[in-house]
Design goal:
Layout (H helix, E strand, L loop, with lengths): L4 E6 L3 H13 L4 E7 L3 H11 L3 E3 L2 H8 L3 E4 L6 H10 L3 E4 L7 H14 L3 E3 L7 H11 L6 E9 L13 H4 L3 H16 L5 E9 L38 E8 L3 E8 L7 E8 L3 E3 L4 E6 L2 E5 L15 H16 L7 H20 L3 E2 L5
Parallel strand pairs: 1-2, 1-4, 2-3, 4-5, 5-6, 7-10
Antiparallel strand pairs: 7-11, 8-9, 8-15, 9-10, 11-12, 12-13, 13-14
Helix pairs in contact: 1-9, 4-5, 5-10, 6-8, 8-10
Length: about 375
């Protein structure tokens, strides 16, 4: 591969402007941003001018054909992840695709199978793993400090945080709502912390009670997940909302492990970000950085001192910086990828099964996808 990796970005929305492009610019000595495409010419041109990218397109295939990038970031709405990933792979590009890779397990597997056939890398941008609090939890697990994990749980609750830019709220574009947007990150992180146990079954439920009837509630872009990067946004219409604003479920994992979760864009509960891991030696409250255990005859709470000296801690999407660095290391020096296909497939199967369970009101087993 050339000294510098040629990179193109498909779709010029928030995540491209706030995460992918800044991450590539941070690696300017190793990466060359050659082009960006978007079906909206204003978004494509403004993004190119904003970041000093020399070429912009409204036709993605033309961009791939003319620019011949080594690596492509797919930042489209979920519905278009698969077709753009497959297109980029067909042009011999490696691909970093936003999460979830696809809306079903079958499509996700097809994408990885095609990447393998083409001899190219495909990776999902499950960047929450890079957060310091989660990497510390994984370290405790790897060192045996928690013992055998048998229960875990997470909550990611926005009281009123529906994304009101783009098309997150439209099923025909995003596939799902809060679970596809927030839950997928937490699912990947909590499974990774525990050594990525395989999914066995799920019972899930979802609802959409508030989004269509509340029209004038004051919220903010930051509260809905966009601290920066929103430009040229399309108008939001509550009547278009047809995905879940709230999702909850219970998951059985291999080895007798059990997990509960809930996540929301809108619910009449206080905002919450919580993740707890329970082992037979100790429990770990990840968000609170607290270990619960015993010492002799006494119950003890331990608060490890964690010094956050991360030079990128002030970046709103620092995980993308580390992911792109790992990708570049992989492409240039054959470094091991941090996020592996089998881990992404495990998460994809859970999400697929959740939506079936919520729609049909029953437990869905992993064996149904074999």
């Amino acid at each position: 591969m050339a000294d510098k990796i040629r990179v193109a970005v498909i779709s010029a929305g928030m995540i491209a402007n706030a995460a992918h492009i800044p991450a590539y610019r941070h690696l300017a000595d190793r990466v060359e941003l050659v082009a960006v495409s978007d079906t909206n010419p204003v978004s494509a041109q403004q993004t190119a001018e904003r970041h000093g990218i020399p070429n912009w397109y409204t036709d993605t295939e033309q961009m791939l054909r003319e620019q011949k990038p080594d690596l492509v970031s797919v930042c489209t709405p979920n519905r278009f992840h698969k077709e753009n990933t497959m297109l980029a792979l067909s042009y011999g590009c490696n691909v970093a695709c936003e999460k979830p890779l696809a809306l079903t397990y079958a499509d996700t597997k097809e994408m990885f199978d095609y990447a393998g056939k083409q001899g190219k890398m495909l990776i999902a941008c499950q960047t929450l793993r890079y957060d310091r609090q989660f990497s510390v939890a994984r370290e405790f697990y790897d060192n045996g400090e928690l013992g055998r994990i048998y229960y875990s749980e997470f909550s990611c609750i926005r009281r009123r945080g529906i994304p009101k830019w783009g098309t997150f709220h439209k099923k025909e574009m995003n596939g799902g709502g809060a679970l596809c947007d927030l839950g997928v990150h937490l699912l990947d992180a909590i499974l990774w912390i525990q050594g990525c146990p395989k999914f066995e079954s799920i019972t899930g439920a979802s609802s959409a009670c508030l989004a269509r009837k509340e029209k004038d509630i004051i919220t903010s872009l930051a509260e809905s997940g966009a601290p920066s990067g929103v430009f040229n946004a399309r108008p939001y219409a509550p009547e278009e909302f047809n995905v879940e604003e709230f999702a909850a479920g219970s998951i059985r994992l291999e080895g007798g492990q059990f997990m509960n979760f809930k996540t929301s864009w809108a619910v009449n509960l206080p905002p919450e970000f919580r993740m707890n891991i329970c082992g037979d030696k100790a429990g770990y409250l990840v968000a609170d950085n607290k270990i619960l255990s015993t010492m002799g005859r006494y119950q003890v709470d331990i608060e490890p001192k964690i010094f956050d000296e991360d030079p990128l801690k002030d970046e709103p999407f620092s995980g993308h910086f580390y992911l792109m660095e790992n990708i570049v290391d992989h492409l240039q020096h054959d470094a091991e990828l941090f996020i592996k296909p089998e881990e992404t497939l495990n998460v994809a199967k859970i999400i697929d099964a959740f939506y079936i369970s919520a729609a049909e009101g029953r437990e869905v087993k992993a064996s149904e996808f074999d």
